[in-house]
Write a structure and sequence with these properties.
heterodimer, A: alpha+beta, Ubiquitin-like (UB roll), 2 domains, five-stranded mixed beta sheet, 15% strand, B: 284 residues, Uridine Diphospho-n-acetylenolpyruvylglucosamine Reductase, domain 2, Enolase-like, domain 1, 3 domains, five-stranded antiparallel beta sheet, 12 helices, 14 strands, 35% helix, 26% strand, iron (chain A), metal-binding (chain A)
Chain lengths: 163, 284
């Protein structure tokens, strides 16, 4: 099968890559672009550890072909914050113990990032429903919910201060 | 996890997509949101030598509501159904049902056309569209034909769509009155143990019209004409609910699986149907 040339803009940087049509986006991100934050936790599209932001939508990159993503703008956890300039969500996950092993965290934060764009003032119930495509084996979710609610509050306060 | 390889196409018109389908026959399949097909390809339960991505076909997108008719392009995502305010006015049962399908990520990608064309009895939209008496528009080499949702499903993964046809849109009449989509499931993202779609209208304090369909209780969705008929002219009393349940039980045929034995599913189906009817009644 012929390889296909795809253009992916990932975390603001544009890459041209030759991929086999069957290559899943998660593997192109991890193995070709070495963005190993997004993880693989299942093969049935349930766990959400591979979640990235694609054209303004949270998607499970294990269930998107790189060929389908040709032309897309993608944000991974590596593009949400940097070690020396964490995003508020990342700060709050640290402060509120929203992670333990850290395997679900990149997907969880990337999903929370989009959730808060769409609903900047979610209730606890809306947060739980909004992250229901992301499984966590360690935290029991409670502290993840706290982290996201705290991040929402901080982001809203920052927005108000800026106005 | 690793699909077999294939050729990938991204046509920008229905005609071009049909051309590729015709050229490759049953070696070709269309991909919409990919959230049923890619999982099957990853498990090698589906092998598709020629994969036709419909994402670039603008004619397959969008929701239009003109007069009393709602038309939803096949590539409209579940998330678009949920966030479309005019659709919420025209047929609120769609948002209620879509919010019970899968999870946020899957709803950004999964499409209404893929949900109904897939043919998996676990999908929620097929029964819902049977209750709505929707029609599915199919484009094939001979042109366009329309198949009622109530005639579309033949068996698990078997539908009235021919291999060289593409399901392009779904149409149905704007709804009025009460509605409910009630689904029992083990967890978020699970297919139903049992689910019921109920629409009813009220006149003079009694049920004037009703439509009922059940999900995942047979190898197809189950349209329950007699169960709906048992409600008409009643005030949804205990007796009417019992009659509707009995009529529904006569046409479902649940199979044992991890969600439970057939007897349990029959019990759940009864509970779910009753809840759905009462919620629809309270909204009528």
């Amino acid at each position: 099968m012929a390889k296909k040339l795809v253009t992916l803009t990932v975390n603001g940087e544009t890459h041209e890559l030759a991929v086999e049509p069957r290559e899943l986006l998660i593997y192109v991100l991890r193995e070709k672009l070495r963005l190993t934050g997004p993880h693989v936790g299942c093969e049935t599209s349930h766990c959400g550890a591979c979640t990235v932001d694609l054209n303004g939508k949270s998607v499970k990159s294990c269930t998107v072909l790189a060929a389908q993503a040709d032309g897309a703008e993608i944000t991974t956890i590596e593009g949400i914050g940097k070690p020396d300039a964490l995003h508020v969500l990342q700060e709050m996950f640290r402060e509120h113990h929203g992670l333990q092993c850290g395997f679900c965290t990149p997907g969880m934060i990337t999903r929370a990032y989009r959730l808060l764009q769409e609903n900047p003032t979610p209730t606890e119930e809306e947060v739980r429903f909004g992250i229901s495509g992301n499984l966590c084996r360690c935290t029991g979710y409670q502290n993840i919910v706290k982290s996201i609610l705290a991040a929402a509050e901080q982001m809203n306060a920052m927005k108000e201060a800026a106005e | 996890m690793i699909p077999a390889n294939f050729e990938y196409y991204r046509p920008d018109s229905v005609a071009a997509a049909l051309g590729i389908l015709q050229e490759h026959g049953d070696e070709a399949r269309v991909i919409a949101g990919g959230h049923s097909l890619i999982p099957m390809m990853k498990l090698r339960m589906a092998e598709v030598p020629h994969l036709i991505d419909l994402q670039a076909i603008a004619a397959l997108r969008g929701i239009s509501i003109e007069g009393g008719t709602v038309r939803i392009g096949a590539m409209t995502t579940q998330n678009e159904l949920i966030t479309h305010d005019d659709l919420l006015q025209a047929a609120p049962i769609l948002r209620e049902a879509a919010l019970q399908i899968a999870d946020p990520q899957v709803r950004y990608m999964g499409t209404v056309g893929g949900n109904v064309a897939n043919g998996d009895p676990g999908n929620d939209m097929p029964g819902l569209f049977q209750a709505l008496d929707a029609s599915f528009e199919l484009h094939g080499p001979e042109g366009i034909r329309s198949v009622p949702a109530r005639d579309f499903y033949e068996a698990a993964y078997m539908t009235a769509r021919e291999d060289d046809e593409i399901l392009t849109a779904i149409t149905f009449a704007r709804t009025s009155g009460g509605y409910a989509y009630e689904k029992q499931k083990r967890k978020i993202g699970d297919y139903a143990t049992a689910a019921a779609a109920v629409l009813l209208t009220k006149e003079g304090g009694k049920v004037a019209t009703a439509a009922i369909a059940m999900t995942n209780l047979s190898d197809t969705p189950v349209f329950c004409a007699d169960a709906a008929g048992a409600l008409v002219g009643t005030e949804c009393t205990t007796d009417a609910l019992a009659a509707a349940d009995a009529a529904m039980q006569a046409v479902i045929d649940p199979m044992q699986d991890n969600r439970g034995p057939a007897e349990f599913k029959r019990h759940v189906a009864g509970v779910i149907l009753k809840r759905a009817i009462l919620r629809a009644w309270s909204r009528a």
